[in-house]
Amino acid sequence: MRRFFSWSLIAAALIVSLPAPMRAQVPTGVEGQRETIDGIAAIVGGEIILKSDVELLFLMRMQEQRIEPGSMTDEERDDIRSTILQDLIDQTLIVARALRDSIVVERGEVEEAINQWMAELQESYGGESAFQQQLNREGITIAELRRRRRPLVRNQLLRSKLLQELGIGRPTAVSRRDAAEFVREHADELLFIRHLLLEPPADIDPDVVARQRIEELWELIVSGREDFETIARQYSDDPNSGPLGGDLGEAPMGTYVASVDSTVWNLPIGEVSEPVRSQFGWHLIQVISRDEERAQARHILIRGVEEGTTIRALADTISMIEDALAAGESFIDLVERFSDEEGAAEETGYFGMLFLPLTAANSGLSAEWIDALQTLEPGDWTGPLELENTVHFVQRIPWDESTVNMVLRNDFPRVELIVQQLHDQEDVEAWLDELRRETYIEIKKE
Prior knowledge:
The chain is about 50% helix and about 15% strand. The protein is an alpha+beta fold. It folds into three domains: about 10-165, Porin chaperone SurA, peptide-binding domain (Triger factor/SurA peptide-binding fold), CATH 1.10.4030.10; about 185-200 and about 315-410, Chitinase A, domain 3 (Roll), CATH 3.10.50; about 205-300, Chitinase A, domain 3.
């Protein structure tokens, strides 16, 4: 399974493990810093919430949503901290009530939940080896990760058992009218998208795709349709020489890997080599000047690696789609013509409903997808985006009343779940109001 966004294991273990008990020092885990207590944020019954607890969760939320705190106003930062503090107060209330009502969570239940979380976390990092490498990078052992996660899991189980015993948050039936009302009321907070899915051949070979691509570029250059430097700037995978038109500068013999070095010192000046293979991929080389001691050359590199392979393998189809979109052809018509997704034509390529603002946490998408989607205007589309060895063009669906029917037709189970969760939250909030009224709560002012 591909991991769409990077997340600190330490942050994941700590982000909601406060309070119970409150700590006198914030653990290392946000940019390697260790901060000491700077005061009490709130008192809830007999428990305290520290300002440093709030600040830790604030920094983690900024990390999760890829927001630079300095880019926000003081008021925006204070609003987020206020929300976090209220969440911590509510957690404290719930745990205290669960303990008061003698709700019991067995150690085996906690360990079982942790084992499941660890298995899912390991899978999200691509397997045991990659997971262990991440642990090593962060300087944390599996035992320490489990220890830090344990209070969170215990509190979650206490909350779940307490609400179940009180009959709060039970699933409620959601009608299609309820679901439609939700979509209409929250349309400004939602992003509705459709996509055109392209799948590569099942036996795709990254090295073969790279070789085919370098041959296409070679043909463009030797035919005179494009010059070497332009192609290098547009397509070379060498991040250093590509922006310079492929220029490698002057270098003595033996500077490059054997196949490239041999070409640089034997190719007639000004000519463009045929594709040259190295451990880095496939090259086109052109010698600018050469004497007995030094040679100046430029090159184009196409790497034979997995990343980007699918887009290259589908380059001809992608080009046709881009040309059709530029000519004004309907995105839905192109879905019908090109999409490899079963049933795409009938569903007009409906991809789903996302919540704004987009973050890795609320969408599960990579930074590349988020950057491409969050600036889309209604009716606009992205360029080709790769996702788990498939390629997608994505369009933001313009909002009108027909969108409601489309969402309910394709996404009713998800909307139903969201509406149920909102109803549950309303029930829990009403119950929390009672707890707040009967518990001493003091929020400390600055």
